Every structure is written in structure tokens, then in C-alpha cells.
């Protein structure tokens, strides 16, 4: 049998890092075992579902490199892959359950059902519904009113009263007692399916063999197991991933910082860095490696190395990892990725194209200082902002011979016929040698004079990039005090 996993987001918001990790693990497991990765859009919450969220979800998944084999935009044998296009399928299966007595119609308003729940709670009992309770609400008069007005009843599933055992691939054996849950709705009076019903029908008909998801769905699983049994569907294997916690050990939320994939994209994180970090949230490499490509993960990922314990989200580590990936990216790719951060803050669209060679060299020189690409506009100001004269620095070096060395340097720079890094390096070294001073006494003040900072890009590279005229102007301004 072909192994098939799925990711089934609801388009009611942006892709959260928790959802991205679930998608990644489902994708990697399918790839490791030569299976298929399916994308299904669960959009039956019509009030909250928006196409803009769906479009962004698809775009973020593609950006991460999690390409699906079947989905709303890729035909497959088990479509459609959007729940709003499958409503008739759910109705048919719900009606079959009613016909065989495993489900029943409830002619009652939501307010009445909520009151029933409140009454049960008032008795200090677990608010589980039974068939008898709900059918009492469906009085003959209520049934006549519904039918005369054309209003549809809700359909509730009559859950078998027994104990259930889930053999979870991550959690191990999970026991559900017969009082774990009561009867529950599978079709609303609006004609829309509930989550637990639709997900079972879809996973079964789409031949999903492995359901990998967050453990916030664990409590739903007993309901789904009962539905699989009643519908005579084969139960898939389940793997529930532990919760992602913030540094304070509470559930990850916006108060911990960025939590959506889109936010990290806007901040200038590389997809391979985010994928690499997400993979380590609850899973570990057999050799404890931390830096790895998605292609390597596809070959070695398996669920037996997924931890039962919650993963702690450390954005500092993610940021460090992103900086490392930035340093390794090619100059050409860095130029392409930098565009949305540099245009229009530093250059116009036209200038970005016409100054392509300079920008490639400038961004390359800044690589070691970057942790996210959104830092580029600020970091690039070093090439344009003219530093103020540091009078204290001038006083401290005035008697050391360095001032004379800088005068020699100006003459040497003016004599360079072809302004390039090699010639600049030769001239700079010659100025040090001819002045007979220590290189450390020469270079550190020179950086401060030209950049206004104690550290930064390679000094000779910087001098080349700001050009001969700017370099000499800054030096003369300093020497003139």
C-alpha cells in the first residue's frame, strides 16, 4: 500500500510555525518512505475562512519547499481537495449513518443544546450528551416546525459506549475510557459538516495512511476512531506531535515574538534556515547534527526520533541559524533576495538594476553582520553616511606618526590608475611600510575615521565600495580637524 500523509489547514489565518512544523514532518515522512504528501483545505468555517488566507498558506508552503503531490491546485485521484467542494459527500455519509441507526436527527436550536449543557454542568457532571437527552429536545411540534419551514435538523453521532486504545506512533498507547466523550454533532443544521466528521470522511476517501498532527487534536481522536469503525473505514496510523512552548514554558503565542511564516519572510529569514530550525523542534538527527538541508532530512527523517516532550521555541537560535545560512548563500542569490528590503528604502527599482554589480559587492561585504535581511537598509548606511570627525581620536594619534601615514595614504590613493581592491590593498600596505608604524596602530583608527564604527565590513572592500573621492574626502576632513 502506498504511504500517504496530508496537511489540512483551515484558511482562517496565516500559517503558524506550529502548523509549518506539522506540514514539514508530514512532508518528510512521506518523502522518506517514497509516499505522497497531500494538501487539503478545510474551509467549512465559512464565516472565518478567506481566500486571501488560503492563497497565503499555499504561497508560504511553496516558499518553504514543501511541495505537495495532490491538492487544490494539483489534480489527483481523490479530489476535490477543498472541503467546501465536498459537501454532498459528507451529506451522503451522514445520511447512511442515520439509515443504519448509528446517527440521529436533532430538531433543536443551538441555544437549547447549550442550555442542556449548562444543566448538566450545574449537576457537577461532565457535559456529555446522550441520545436520550438530545431526542427529548426533538418534540413532535419542533419536528413539524422544522419541516414546514424547510429548516434542516442537525445530525448527531451515537458513539458506542466502550473503551478505546490508540496506538500512537509518538505518544505510545493512549487510553480513552467509555466516558471520554458523549454523542456529538456530525452535521450542523446549516448543512455543513463538523470538523471530526469531515476529517474522517476525507482522510478515508483520500487513502491517507498516516495522520501526523499536533497533540491539541489528541482528544478528538476517540471521536474519529468511533466514526472510522462505524463507517467501516480502515483506521490510519496516528502520530501526535507535542506542543511547542515559548522560552517561558507556556504555549507559543504572539507574545513570544513572530509566530507566523509570513512574519519571518518579511523579516528576511531564508526558507532553508526556517525549515532547518523547525525540523529540530521535537526531532533530532541520528548524529545530532544541527545544520542540514531539506534533501538530507528527506533521507533520514522518521517518527522514531520524534520526542514525546514539548519542544521549546528559541528565536535566538533560529536567528543565529539564519545568519549562518545568509553567510553561505551565493552572492547572486543574495542580490535577488535583498531586493524587497533595499527597494525603495535605499535604491529605487531602476537604481537597483543599474547598480547591480555594486550592490552585489556591498551585500557580500555585509554578510557576516546580518542575521536577517531586513537589517540591510540600516547596515548599508555605512556606505552613505559621512562620519563626524572624532577629535579625541585625532589627539590620541597625532604624535604617533599615524597622521603622517594617512597623508602618505592619500597621495598613494590619488596615484592609483585603476581603482580596484588589489591596487587599494597594495597602496594601503605601502603606506604602513613607508611610515614605519605598527599595522594595528594604522588600521583601527582608519576604520573609525572612514566608517565612524569600531567594526564592520572588510576595510579594503569598504574603501573600494565608497570610492576614491569619498575615501580621500573623509581622510582630509579628519586630518584638517
Question: How would you describe this structure to a colleague?
Answer:
The chain has 481 residues and is mainly alpha-helical. The chain has four domains: 4-71 and 244-312, 3-Layer(aba) Sandwich (Rossmann fold); 86-241, 3-Layer(aba) Sandwich (Rossmann fold); 330-380; 391-479, Orthogonal Bundle (Arc Repressor Mutant, subunit A). Helix content is 49%, strand content 9%. It has 21 helices and eleven strands. A three-stranded antiparallel beta sheet has the order 3-4-7, sandwiched between helices. β8 (210-214), α8 (221-230) and β9 (237-241) form a beta-alpha-beta unit. The mean pLDDT is 94.
The major β-sheet equals: 3 strands, antiparallel
Task: Name the strands of the widest sheet in spatial order.
Answer: 3-4-7
Number of individual domains: 4
Note the beta-strand portion: 5-15%
Label the overall shape: elongated
What percent of the residues sit in helical stretches (DSSP H or I)?
40-55%
Distance between the termini: 81 Å
CATH class of the largest domain: Alpha Beta
Assign the CATH topology of the largest domain. Answer: Rossmann fold
CATH architecture of the largest domain: 3-Layer(aba) Sandwich
Can you tell me the residue ranges where pLDDT is under 50 for at least 5 consecutive residues?
none
User: What does the radius of gyration come to?
Assistant: 32 Å
Structural class given helices, strands, pairing? mainly alpha
Mean pLDDT comes to 94
